[in-house]
Structures are given as C-alpha cells and as structure tokens.
Amino acid sequence: MHAVPSRLAALYTACCLLLVPALARAGDLSGAEPMLRTRGNPVQVGGLWCGIGLLNEFTLQITQQYQAFEAQLSRKGKTREVTGQIEGSTLRTDPQRNVVLVLKAVNDELRITHGTGQFALAQGQGFARAHGGSCGT
Fold it and tell me: Which pLDDT tens digit goes with each residue over 54-69?
C-alpha cells in the first residue's frame, strides 16, 4: 500500500533532478553562453556586438523580442537605428532608405551575408559578441 506513493515520490524526485541543469542554464542571461537555437526558434542575439576586421570601429547593440529585433549600429558617435526579423539563425533588417543588411549567426559571431547600399562591400565582415559588456580594445 505504501509502495505506490513511494514510487511516485521517487519518480518525482528523478524528474526534478533531470530538470536542474536546464533550469540552471535558463537562469544565466550573462550573454557569455554560445548562441543556442531550438527547432523553430530564432537564435538569441540580444546584447552588444563588436565589429571585427574592417568593421572594428562599429558596435551593434541588439534588443530582441523573439523573432523581431531592434538594433543601434554605431561608429564614432553616430548611431543608425535598424529593425528587422530573425528566421532561424538569419537576421534580416527591414528595408530602410533602400538599404538591407542580412547577417548569419554562427557560434559567437554575426557575419554579413548580404548587404545593399553602403553595406554592399561589407559581405563577409561581421561582429563578435562583446565580453564584459564593452568593446574595449
């Protein structure tokens, strides 16, 4: 008679122990974790990104709400506001002044895969996730 409740308690305890690592990761929002994407969900790209290579003077601050994002692209005190959508690991800005920017998230980098207007020559360049909250050199 006591076997059923004790088995249920053991099953409940085992289930809780299986969830502990996932819950611990979910509580860490430091941005230092690699970008993770689950099936059908966009990668998590919110936060500060630092230009690398030819874009080393640029920063990209992204605010993400599921598949939509807003970003501030800054260089030498000048900031350009952009908006866009995320599909899987691809970020595509909304057309603004006939300029579109497409980035692909790979590991802790955002690489420009397509650009029009002033970004046409930036293909292959990208951004790395900021560590420590800044893009210090």
Answer: 899 999 999 999 999 9
Asked if residue 59 lies in contact with residue 50, where contact means CB atoms within 8 angstroms, the answer is yes
Cβ atoms of 45 and 33 closer than 8 Å: no
Question: Cα separation of 127 and 64, whole Å?
Answer: 16
Number of H helices, E strands in the chain: 1, 8
Model pTM greater than 0.85?
Answer: no
Q: CA–CA separation, 26 vs 9, rounded Å?
A: 25
Cβ atoms of 90 and 29 closer than 8 Å = no
The conformation of residue 134, written as its DSSP 8-state character, comes to B
CA atoms within 13 A on the CB side of 28: 12
- Per-residue pLDDT, 23: 32
Comparing CA positions, the residue from 29, 67, 63 lying closest to residue 48 is 63
